[in-house]
Amino acid sequence: MLESGCKAVKEGMLEKRSDGLLQLWKKKRCVLTEEGLLLIPPKHSPPPPQQQPPAEPAAKIKELHFSNMKTVDCVERKGKYVYFTVVMAEGKEIDFRCAQEQGWNAAITLQMVQYKNRQAILAVRSTRQKQQHLAAPHGPR
């Protein structure tokens, strides 16, 4: 996403629950863009946009693209944290938490809705263009 020139809408730390048996909370540096969410291990820094990233660190960066995201839900406030779940299109659920004042769940939801709206508008325009093309009279034969 960053390589394609998408600007960061929000950056900061989020905690993601691991998939393992212990389900520990791991800090991730996150970059929210108009296209999705990048999860970067805190030790890594994203590559500059004009450089090609090395193969190994790039594998550590996880991209949650809005085209593969279904919903952001299960918001719960407990103590100083907000807990929320990102549900992916294939049914995978990814649990996150952050300090209440950070508002990551709202920011992710807002960007996802805006992305889906842009995609819907593009789909409608494409359909209309096809209909207009089909309805246009063809020259005499």
TrEMBL record:
UniProt-listed InterPro entries: PH-like_dom_sf, PH_domain, PHLA1/2/3
Gene Ontology BP, a term: positive regulation of apoptotic process
One example GO MF annotation: phosphatidylinositol phosphate binding
Gene3D superfamilies cross-referenced by the UniProt entry: Pleckstrin-homology domain (PH domain)/Phosphotyrosine-binding domain (PTB) (2.30.29.30)
Cellular component terms (Gene Ontology): cytoplasm; nucleus
Domain PH: residue ranges: 8-115
Localisation per UniProt entry: Cytoplasm
Superkingdom to which the source organism belongs: Eukaryota
Key words, A-Z: Cytoplasm
PANTHER family, per the entry: PLECKSTRIN HOMOLOGY-LIKE DOMAIN FAMILY A MEMBER 1 (PTHR15478:SF4), PLECKSTRIN HOMOLOGY-LIKE DOMAIN, PQ-RICH PROTEIN (PTHR15478)
Name of the protein described by the UniProt record: PHLA1 protein
Lineage summary: Eukaryota, Metazoa, Chordata, Craniata, Vertebrata
Gene it is expressed from: Phlda1_0
